[in-house]
Amino acid sequence: MSVEAHKHDLRASGEPYxxxxxxxxxVVAKEISLDDVSVAAALLHDVVEDTRxxxxxxxxxxxxxxxEIVDGATKITDIFESHEVRQAExxxxxxxxxxxxxxxxxxxxxxxxxNMRTLEYxxxxxxxxxxxxxxxxxxxxxxxxxLAKIKWELEDLAFKHLHPTDYELxxxxxxxxxxxxxxxxxxxxxxxxxxxxxxxVAFEIEGRPKHLLSIYNKMQRxxxxxxxxxxxxxxxxxxxxKDSNDCFLAYGIVTEVYKPIxxxxxxxxxxxxxxxxxxxxxxxxxxxGRLVEVQIRTRGMHDVxxxxxxxxxxxxxxxxxxxxxxxxxxxxxxxxxxxxxxxxPRELIESFRLNLxxxxxYLFTPKGDLKILPRNATPIDFxxxxxxxxxxxxxxxxxxxxxxxxxxxxxxGDQVEIITSKNQKPNPDWEQIVVTHKAKSAIRRWVxxxxxxxxxxxxxxxxxxxxxxxxHVNEDELAKFIHTLRYENLGHFYREVGAGRVxxxxxxxxxxxxxxxxxxxQKGAPEQAETLFNKFxxxxxxxxxxxxxxxxxxxxxxQYAKCCNPIPGDAIVGxxxxxxxxxxxxxxxxxxxxxxxxxxxRIVEVSxxxxxxxxxxxxxxxxxxxxxxxxxxxxxxxxxxxNTNIRSVNMDSRGPxxxxxxxxxxxxxxxxxxxxxxxxxxxxxxxxxxxxA
Length: 693
Prior knowledge:
This protein is an alpha+beta fold. Among the domains are: 2-154, Hypothetical protein af1432 (Orthogonal Bundle), CATH 1.10.3210; 172-312, 2-Layer Sandwich (Beta Polymerase, domain 2), CATH 3.30.460; 515-608, no CATH class; 616-691, Alpha-Beta Plaits, CATH 3.30.70.
């Protein structure tokens, strides 16, 4: 069918198109070593997409299994105009199909490998796009599947087309030193071979060439030319045994012959990688002081390392069954798409890149449970790995028994204990700290939900205020009005209202004035110079001529705005309302910034009196390490300083961490700052700051 379907098609190279599915099938059969069903699907993988044949034709001719694999491997095209969306949806379908039958993805690796081997026939812009996609998506995927040889070849072919000059330079230099390196490896291997023979262990030992991108990355990382990159030598020892203890015996022999570098030892036998990879890695100092990387594994481990997940995949009566060792890996794929509808294509692509990491670290819970996370993971990532609810309520962490900040980068072997509080909520800034998809998507999901709730609350509050004021405003009119106040849209405005960052009463008064002015003009009513508004305006401007508003007696009402809660010492301004007097705001209040643009005539300069016996409310946010008597010490420090009155205390603790809020009465900002300084000196206090609602 494949020959017939593609008989009139040619590749960019001018060759018959059938050569492509034929070469893909060879990779599937020889390099990945899959079954005859996979080979048949590889031969047919482009038939549905590119020819007149349909999936039902394949199903009728070759059965359901082959048809399902071909369907999974068929790219999605002509559905979305955006390349980014099409790319994201294509990967999504591949992964979701892979959950049911992993052969879909293995055929796609073979397909991409042959396309990369013949990439030079395509236009340069398409070469670069496919090479970058291969480097960012397919090569890391191949690593996660444990297909080491295919991963290296994909990386080197991508490197060849993305950095052709550097690629050719490294190839020439390696070719020039090939004999020297082969001679050195022979010299290195001889004493090890002799000792292994003495132990009567069947083995194979060989030099393992470094792949080109790895060399290039080391040159870039160390800012050195290739002739100064000394650890280009690598040796692999493969033991013909099923006993993993023989690997440690071989390791002992190697490290007796050559001095090991302890920090370069990695035991992936006791703790395998997520893709099932097992091996011992070490680096030793060989002859002439050169560093040599050594890998030691059994034949079975080597088979898994070369063929990866394919070596774990067994076929019984046409159905694929996953080895238990890889069940958690497939669960990762399912988890990757649990938020499918909420993710944008850009976020989806980012999720692939975040999760296809190559470097993993091994962490432990206090009970000894193993958690595998990417390098640079933080306690927040660890918390979300345990459970989303643990992540949402995480306020701190202990690493190896010591409390650490939440942005601490964890290291392999760390024991991590997460400290939670029922009152804790995720910080949107956490998204910039975490590195795992699970944590990022959970934080995004929470932020979206909070924004939705905030907007809903804001809308209800604003509608209630409008109803109370007996004011009717349609959405178009409101949208135009809030645009003058520099809000992006109604959603943004409602969110700000819901968060308490908008002086709603003042805005409603403005809306009321906007509606009354045209009505007065239509009726031809004369302007009244001495309206209530003008009286407030005239009087307030008189106050601004060097007279404190507090010194003006009880002639004018004033209130302190709840949005910024000013206290004496703050730079302040007044906003004239009709009915509630003058609202006093801090000058840096967001609402004042907006109101200056829309109603600048109603903004008046006011000032605090030179001296006042009045006291004002201030809120203080406090957190620290909990201990017996801490709250008593804090309240004592506050109340004994100039008889400062504490109005209320709200504290919560979980484990060794506490946080909370204290409401005080203070005379001015200087008084407040001196109280904060006293509290900071209390042992165990980590953070004290003024809280502005």
